[in-house]
Amino acid sequence: MAPVANPSAATAPTPLSPAELSYLHSSLSLRPPIRPDSRKPAQFRPLTAELDILPSTHGSSRIVWPDGGECIVGIKAEVEKATPNKDIRSRVEVSVEVAGARDDDPLAVFLASSVGDTLGQKLAGRLEIGERWHWKLYIDILLLTPPVSHPATLLSLAVHLGLRCTNLPRLVSAADEDPLFDDDWDAALPLYPSNAAEVGDVPAVTLLVAAVGENIFFDPTREEMAVADCVLAVSVDWDGKIVGLRTLESGTVSEGGVKRKVIKKVVEQCVPVGKEVFKSLEGIIKAGF
Amino acid sequence: MSISITRPSTPPSLAPLLRTSINNQQNQQQQEEDADGDIPMVSSAGDVSIVTPGEVVTSNPQWMRGHGTYLVEDREAGGMNIVATVAGTVQKVNKLLSVRPLKARYQPEIGDLVVGRIVEVQSKRWKVDINSAQNSALLLSSINLPGGILRKRTSTDELQIRTFFSEGDLLVAEVQSLFQDGSASLHTRSLKYGKLRNGYLIRVSSRGIQRARSQVVSLATANGGGEVEVVLGVNGYVWIAKKANTAPTEGVSITRLEEEASEAIYSSKNDFILPATRREIARIGNCIRAMVRCNLRVDEDMLNAVYEVAVEAADQGEENVDASLEGEEGRRVVEIALARKMGL
Amino acid sequence: MAMADRRRINGPTGATVPPVFLEQTLALTAPRRAPDELRKIFLKTSLTPPATGSAFLELSAPSTLKLTASVYGPRPLPPSAGFSPHARLSAELKFAPFSTAGNRRGYVRDALERDLSTQLQVALARSVKTATYPKSGIDVFVTVLDCEGSIDDYNTLGIMQALAGAITCASAAIADAGIECVDLVSAGIAAAVGEQGSLVMDPSPLDGYDVKAAALVGYMAGRDEITLLWTKGELNIEGGDFESVVDKAVEVATQIRTVLNEAVKERVLAVGGVNS
């Protein structure tokens, strides 16, 4: 895709003809709905993922969609002196680069802040080194191909996998000394221990959900988003708690907002679907080690 | 299962099956070449004549160079070499030698049936995206105006140009002529062409669509879906829609038909479409995508075969089958269809 | 000062005392509101004459939130934007350099402003009948003159309050501009605070609550529909935490809506009085 003059055009839905919009909208409003690719409402497109692909990082992952959407995450850690009264969330820095888009592209900004919100305090709490020092974690996300559909889910799964395979050097000094680390890479300790999933303390994931009428669709394509009444990015954690929710731009087929009961239905469905996603992620992580 | 995340594997490929069919063709070619007394054009890489840019295809002066090649003087042997400019397969038509690129944007040719989307409306013409390097043009004088084929274009038509086609609208057209820069000029001056509605567009690589006698395929679908029409645009845009009820019947005079159809011809409103039809339209779309993913060309026969297998698979598998035909399931369906068709 | 001896280092001419900021004490001494008590809102429209529509919003003391919204349009889209069958609504939210407590804020437009601008646009876009205005653009500009506390990513309530004020104020400005809309949008915030996660309506960062989770809604009371929902922090679904905090935020938005209605009506009455 050629770079576009209008930054938002990269994220704006392709202009669809009135006939297409009406066909999509009515297909998705049916009960049961018919998605243009016959997927079930809660079915995701198949993904392929790889862990630990970049040797120069502390943790990395790559995840690919069948339509060509591809995302690479590299995580690097640095030691930083603790500053009192500074919010601990500043220990995690997220940057997103979307291929073919400018740095200040609204999509990149949205993705970075949504990943930051999702990880929140819990991850920051893991980065302590004694009293006066802590790790500073840089999560750099590269969206290699201009996304055909909204990449929020893709990105959050890639970040999850990247963090799960992140290893930090082992501390050999005492807690109150200046930190000194074991330079044996094999002795490095995982940021998330291998039993993290059993304890239930793993990074949350963001699910993209579109609502058309009272029907709810997970992992919507761009066409489906273009006719949706509302699109929500819902971040759920292992325990089925909502850790963040945002509203995305949706189509212009209809006016008006969305009823409360639809939103309620969306978040309720996010819990079981989130469980499935975590199960799937666990599978790939287990296979990776 | 709502989500599947797998480790990367080799992309789905029908190599073993395709190899047999290619070998058959290859043997035929080989024999022809031997009869011609020509050097065998088989690259060292394998048994398929694939060349890379800069590779000498032949030095035999009997060949004329076509697309994807250029001529270089051979200093040592004297004479001229035909050298490839793209990576692709060598093709021979009579004495014309060309290299068809493995992957390239669609290049319009006169007579192609294409599906396009209006991207810009100008005063007397439209700019149409047809998935090629340049947007093509559709002149106001190249469309059927409502009210009969013989009507003259007026300034009123120019003023209400958006009532015919507006930005985003989809249409099926034929490439009428080519401009100097390779961009196409389209026309819709036939009842077969015009605005598209009652369906859904999918995009595949233009290489995935076979140029055939007829690009418009009519499928009698299963599960009460009725007739579905598939417009296989040579440019890789495929329109799948419910077949119009008012199919033109033989024997009606062409001018009368013209008048009757003109009312609906520029409508953007969909007819009533049964859920069953919508389901089958989605299935056909998945079949086409799966075929292209497996590097298979889509034509009427193949599409029918794959669709049949997909319907059977869905009937047998009930809940467990992945109806979207992404990944393994799509490959399996296409393989069965291919095997069945080749009588294996 | 001009008379000062330049060859020596002079002390200050007047005795100065290091500045003492009252921010914290102010918050502590202010009578704490009841958890279900909203702050009073001052909302007035048509205060920026050149704009098609405008509004100003201010919260009662001790809150310091002040912001203005102006709406330009519908006006023709630039030719480069291409054809659009419906109006394109763009929204921009900016913090004035002097808007934050403590340090001055530069003019650089950062990620936060972009993020809030996008959310503001999402909240408003579906309330406007954009199909009525083909080929046109409607531009909404909101300037935050003074906000509550610092503006950084970690002051969740401060940011949410600024956005909520912006939505309500911008909706008033859109109505003031006479642009057709299906309903007005008012925004409300509710938060779950403390260990028990008790609910607070319209919480301010100056209240000093220990916020566990917060929710902001953009709400069209006339249609009972939500245009924007933004939550931060952990919320249980099975226990109904999520639902109750969203419902509380909707309740806040519904109450704010009455102020919004009054402000819009006030202007119509004033102009109507002149004409008849």
Describe this structure in words.
The complex is a heterotrimer of chains A (289), B (344) and C (276). Chain A has 289 residues and is an alpha+beta fold. Chain A has one domain (20-288): Ribosomal Protein S5, domain 2 (2-Layer Sandwich). Chain A is 29% helix and 25% strand. Chain A contains 6 helices and 12 strands. Chain A is elongated and about 70 Å long. Chain B is α+β, with helices and mostly antiparallel strands. Chain B starts with a strand and ends with a helix. The relative contact order of chain B is 0.11. Chain C is α+β, with helices and mostly antiparallel strands. Helix content of chain C is 28%, strand content 27%. In chain C, the strands form 2 sheets. Chain C has a 5-stranded mixed sheet with strand order 1-2-3-5-4. A 4-stranded antiparallel sheet of chain C has the order 7-6-8-9. In chain C, helix 2 packs across helix 3 (156-176) and helix 3 packs parallel to helix 4 (241-275). Chains A and C meet through helix 2, strand 12 and helix 6 of A and helix 2, strand 8, strand 9 and helix 4 of C. Strand 1 of chain A pairs parallel with strand 1 (5-6) of chain B, so a sheet runs across the interface. Chain C: It is found in: Cytoplasm; Nucleus. Chain C: One of its GO terms (cellular component) is nucleolus. Chain C: Keywords: Cytoplasm, Exosome, Nucleus, RNA-binding, rRNA processing.
